[in-house]
Amino acid sequence: METACPVATFKLPPCLLLPSIKSGTTSSRFLHSNLRSKQLEFQNHGFSSQFIFRCSSSRKFLISPCEHEKLKYAQQLLDNLPNRDVNSWSALIVAYCRRGNFAQAFGLFQIMVGEGLQPSGFALASLIKVSSSLGEIGLCKQLHGWSVQTGFGLDSGVRAALIIMYSRCGGLDDAQRVFEETSVLALDILLWNSIMAAYIFHGCWVQVLRLFCKMVSVGVVAPTELTYVSVVNACGSAGEEKYGSMVHGRIVKDGLEATNIWNSLVTFYGKCGHLQHASQLFERIPRKDVVSWNAMIAANEHRVEGENAVGLFRRMLKVEPCVQPNRVTFLSLLSAVSGLSHLNWGREIHAHIIRLGLEIDTSITNSLITLYSRCREVGTARDIFEGMLSRDVISWNSMLAGYEQNEQQGRCFDIFKRMMLSGIEPDSHTLTIILNATSHDSSGFVCCQRGKEIHGYILRRITPGGVSLSVSNAMLKMYVKFNLIADAEKIFKGVKNRDSYSWNAMMDGYSRNGKFEDAVMIYLDILKQGFPLDHLSLSILLTSCGRLVSLQLGKQFHTVVAKLFFGQDCAHQESLFSINNALISMYSKCGSIKDAAQVFLKTERKDVFSWTAMITGCAHHGMAIEAFQLFKRMKTEGIKPNKVTFLALLMACAHGGRVQEGSYYFDSMFNDYGLSPSIEHYACMIDLFGRSGQFDRAKSLVESGITLFKPYHDDILNLWKVLLGACHASKQLDLGEEAATKILELEPEDEATYILLANLYASSGLWEDAIKVRKAMRDRGLRKEVGCSWIDTENRRHVFVAGDVIHPQRKEIYEKLAQLNFSCRRMGYTPMTELVLHDVDETEKEAILGCHSEKLALSFGLLNCGVGNGVIRVMKNLRVCEDCHSWMKFASLLEKREILLRDSQRFHLFRDGSCSCGDYW
What we know:
mainly alpha, 6 strands, 6-stranded mixed beta sheet
């Protein structure tokens, strides 16, 4: 006696409208009529259910109206059956599920249950899978309960479907519970594969490996191809290289050679970085399908071997039988070519995409935008973006990133506004890009304000999870670039899970703003927190030492670099690129050009930054000939110079008074390399012409620069300031007055301009005018920057000002200074009292000159640096005066010591009574 199945009432989601199933529907189609004429339709239910299934199981239903008609015929056939059996109902339910007609499938299921029938296990499993795709956990649980109530709870296919259903609805624990309800010895391979698939869906790679070990140890069932594919993919995603190799060995032992297993192994070795091994496996695949080619192309893309990826693609197009690339192929290819910024290859791939009709795919279009943006074809990227029929958040982000990478901040902000108006919600990547865009122009007030507005927007929309780390880091970087260090500190303190970028950004912020001790404290905090020091951290620390002009500290960090990086593997050797460049820069800024040259010569692979750092060091040390020779070698090596390289060359020319060479390099920038001179290049040329006495050319260049940089207030100021400095050095009163007037019109509070103008008047004997300028300065509450000099001994910095009387060794210092003054006078030194721009007698002028800060610092150094041939290094925050410069030459001859003096302009190396600058500075 047949048991009636329980009738269940299911609460379906509102989106599922149940179909009205009518009886007695007639069909006029030929096949159906043929069946009727042969009287087969209602005589054989097995044939009918088979016909229903075949009519409704075409894979092309979603794109073929013809297949839609087949499914319709199957429904009509079921409607006309006088005695519909379980197989007929189940066949059509499965068919609807496969075709994605969820409402019809559930409708049939309810009617079937209402008639006292229950579907087959296969049909029930199909329904359960369908419910998981809807994300309706309530409906899923109803089906689960019904399956248990009707005795399907032990059906392996139903259990597997339940595991998949719960995992897709976020209930991984429920999926595990369903799996564990079955005895270990009763678990078949379908259940093992299903639970592994569930954990893979949630990214729990290690758990997949544990399940595989458990399955093998139980030994009831043998792994299938699908099992091995899942485990190998988990090994690749988890980075379990050793475990994956062991699984590979088991596959070989089992003699499995299915293409999908080969594909998973190629992917695994590609993810683990073993490109050669992946290539060997790829070549051994007897029947390569599109997934095989995609796996190998992706492996090359992952290892930044874009050229190989393109070569594989071209080879793929030529193989027989033909393998047609799909969207995955092109996504990997576009990523590879974007990394190379190879425009022609990108256009070639774009043509294939159009030929295959894949340009409407949003993901591919997004990748094309990225490709053209990185190839500096941002106009083409914009055209593709504007032609998109539908855009997702990645589309907007790709276009935003394109403008940001090409430094088109205005367009970047415009596209961000359009995105907001379109109703697309910005994600963390959007906010990171737009914040980075504000950081490009660190001197722009508008960009700073926009950055603060975006910060306010972020604060207004903070979710319970807080601000993402990438957004926090972008805000930190923005405030650091704008030198708003207090705001940067607030952001930094609010970041909970800091990464190396957070620490490095804050360290760099302190370094940029002269808070070198705080930068070192960040370094100590990194060590306390257990964060590994990366090459960027050490590069920032070395840069800080250069800014601090602390050779001793720089050498200590050089030792840290040697311990961490030198003699290590290739990955660390790549990091040495930036560290070596930072070392060259640090040593040259700290006055040890020999150490800088030694690091430069030992650097095997030199990039444009390596050469530029060394050329800049030579320029600051007055070694113009050496700088020119390095530039020639750089061109011979095939390294293309950048704007900073030319800036270093122009500085070398300015420090050496080499007008002809300076003019050549200035013109060569654009004529030979297409580089437009910046405000800094103009300033160097104005300084070069001015200090060489060619003031007409200097003024003409100022006027040209003003025309070029007119919208930028600070740039115009800088040009006039450089000209004023040159006029002050050469006592050009009229042009100096004009320059000072222009500066004070734009920036009335610039104290340096008042000082230079007053000194210019005083040196020309116009004492009344000088007094007026100084009074105007006092009335505005402006003060002259105090000149100071310092010297480092025994890890301590000793700072002196003119006439210093607070140093603990002041007595010994002044005694040594008096001794030096006496001896220097006997050797021919005469104080340059005309440099004292105050209306006092000669004796007082000599007294003022006699206790300048650099002379006090040198006296201290001679007392405390020991006797020997070591270089005494003195640093000064202002330009050294002519009297001190002359005095230092005599002191070096008298003491038989090398004296290295770094002022605000350059390095002066005094040796045997002469200076490296050749008395031109």
